[in-house]
Amino acid sequence: MNESMKRFFDELDAALVAFANGQRLELYHIGRSALVLQFGATLATKDIDIIVGQQTPLEEKALELFGKNTPGAKEMDFYLDFVPEGLTSFANSFRTRAREFEGGWQVIRLMQLEPNDLAATKMKSFRLHDRQDLKLLCDLGVLEPDKLRRSIEASLTWETEDVREKVNAHLDLVINYLEGRSRAL
After folding, report:
1. Quick one: which of 93, 112, 117, 147 has the fewest CB in 10 Å?
2. Stated pTM of the model
C-alpha cells in the first residue's frame, strides 16, 4: 500500500471530524490511485478520483479542504477529484459489489470497486494510461472475461450505439490480451 496515500486519507478523515456531526462519507475510489492503493501498483498519480452523484455538504467540505490547488492538497501532494457518475461508464450495481478499505477512519468509508467494475471505468476513454492500467489488472489476474463483459454491458445501458460499439471493441482487445490471444493492448 502506498503509505503517503494512506496518510492522505488519514488527514482527510481527521479534517472532516469537526464537520461530520456523526455522518459517514462514502468515497467510491476509482482511477489510477485506486490501483495504487488496492493493488500496490507503482504508478505515478496526484489525483484521487472519487465517484459522486449529487454532492453532499460533507463531500463539498472534503473538496474545499483537499481539492485541487487547496492548501491541504499541496501539503499532502495528492488532491481529491470528484468524477460525476455520468462522466464515465459504471455498472448500475457497482456499489453492491464494492468493498470497504479498512482504514480505521471515523468519518470516511473508502470503498474499493470490484476489479471488473474498476476496469469498466477505463473502457470508454481507453487512453494510453487507461490501457496501461487495464494491462496491469490483466497481468495481476484479477479480471474475469465473463464478469468484465457483464460489467461493461451493465455500464452501457444509457449509451448511444456508437459508444457501445467503441467500448465493445475495447473490451474485445482486453479479453484477447487477458486470454493470451494478443500480446498488446
Report:
1. 93
2. 0.91
